[in-house]
Amino acid sequence: MDHTQKITDFLGPIEVLDNLEDTPDAEGLELKGGSSYLLYKVDGEVKFHQVEEDAVTFIGRSTFSDIRFDDASVSRKHALIRLKDGRASLIDNRSLNGIYLNGERIDESALSSGDVFHVGRHAITFISVPSEV
Predict the structure, then answer these.
(1) Is the pLDDT score of 104 beyond 80?
(2) What's the pTM?
(3) Integer Cα distance of 35 and 60 in angstroms
(4) What are φ and ψ of residue 20, in 5° steps?
(5) Average pLDDT over every residue of 52-71
(6) Calpha distance 5→46 (Å, rounded)
(7) Strand, helix or coil at 79?
(8) In Å, how far from its chain's centre is CA 87?
(9) Strand pairing of 36-42 and 99-101?
(10) Is the backbone of residue 98 left (phi > 0), alpha (psi -120 to 50) or beta?
(11) Could you give the CA distance from residue 104 to residue 100 in angstroms, rounded to a whole number?
(12) Buried b or exposed e, range 106-122, using 16+ CB within 10 angstroms
């Protein structure tokens, strides 16, 4: 059985995505059970990126990044996320301004659903949707 849930039902009061309900396309966004996502805003628009198992997600200013921020506060190859056996890790890729996870500067850390990390001036929320929602 394919479990999905509307993004507005799942998120609740996550700080980076306040007023998500007012986003025109938010009602149509669905998160698949058993999947992980990164949610963020670019120019006021909510975006999400599915984190793939056994893959690396690159975050930075480079045009080759999976999540790209065209902002001088973000290094070209700022951070990466690895998802292995359902466990996500956030890694600072020797960025100039570092990564702050839930307010603490980190070099590498495990991610839990609802964690908010900052890449430069940009907040990103990690969401892990349980298989049975």
Answers:
(1) yes
(2) 0.79
(3) 22
(4) -60, -35
(5) 96
(6) 17
(7) strand
(8) 14
(9) unpaired
(10) left
(11) 5
(12) beebebeeebbbbbbeb
